[in-house]
Specification:
Elements: H1 10-33, E1 35-40, E2 45-50, E3 55-60, H2 70-102
Antiparallel strand pairs: 1-2, 2-3
């Protein structure tokens, strides 16, 4: 380096990258075991998603099932599922922020 900076410690950078990869795998495993719930219709329709944004259960109160109101039921299901997915996305973002907040990678001299 001609600007007076020492070259980056590539081994340290590699070790940090490996650590981050391990932490990311751990977070992904943890997210699969965490769930969030979305509901609509005052709780008549409930959707549960895991932190990997997979729908894991859907409960519909029999009170809301009516052949004449299929459109309303569809709307309630969509609302509950969308709410659960939004919460799952938020959960994943929070977990990732926890990881990136712990990182302190110095890239002086690389760029």
């Amino acid at each position: 380096m001609t600007d007076g900076q020492s070259p980056p410690d590539l081994q340290s950078l590699f070790d940090t990258a490996q650590h981050v990869q391990q932490q990311l795998s751990k977070i992904q495993e943890e997210l699969a075991g965490k769930t969030v719930e979305g509901s609509s219709g005052g709780g008549l329709v409930r959707a549960v998603a895991n932190g990997r944004q997979q729908l894991v259960s859907l409960r519909i109160d029999p009170e809301v099932v009516d052949r004449e109101e299929v459109g309303m039921l569809e709307d309630l299901v969509l609302a509950a599922v969308n709410q659960a997915m939004a919460k799952a996305t938020e959960l994943a973002q929070q977990e990732m922020a926890r990881l990136t907040g712990q990182m302190n990678i110095k890239l002086h001299g690389l760029f």
